Amino acid sequence: MRYVEDYEQGRTYELGTYKVTEQEIVDFGRRFDPQPYHVDAELGEDSLFQGLVASGWHTCGMFMRLYVDTLLGGAAVEGSPGVDELRWLKPVRPGDVLTGRLTIVGVTASMTRPGCSTLHKRGELTDAQGQPVMRLTLYSMFRHRPRD
């Protein structure tokens, strides 16, 4: 179990990579964001994106998958009070390989939940060329390590 004390302020954690497939873009788009450029490559050709691109919300899900698999799974997390900033900087296309990173910006003791603190974090997904495709600022509440 990882507790708030296990996350070092200022440290950047590598979250691994995620390869995007055409099928998952279309499946997510059809189910949650059925805009032409998320569901049909041909229709996407006539858009600003000139092809099929992932929904920004799908891109958030890709980041979350990497975050949970690398850091959040098995952690003493109590939930999240939210996201302050979210930016989609570049379209995500089929075949893209995205790399996730998460930096711990700060830690604030909870005034209402004794034994918990909130981690302030900045996350980023970059493409294979190192260009950012998404950035976000997020918060999560973690328990402190129990005292024996």
UniProtKB/TrEMBL annotation:
Which domain of life does this protein belong to? Answer: Bacteria
Q: One Pfam family for this entry, by name?
A: MaoC_dehydratas
Q: MaoC-like domain location, by residue?
A: 10-110
Family annotation (PANTHER family): BETA-METHYLMALYL-COA DEHYDRATASE, MONOAMINE OXIDASE-RELATED
Q: Which family does it belong to?
A: Belongs to the enoyl-CoA hydratase/isomerase family.
Name of this chain's protein:
Acyl dehydratase
Q: What is the originating organism of this protein?
A: Kitasatospora kifunensis (Streptomyces kifunensis)
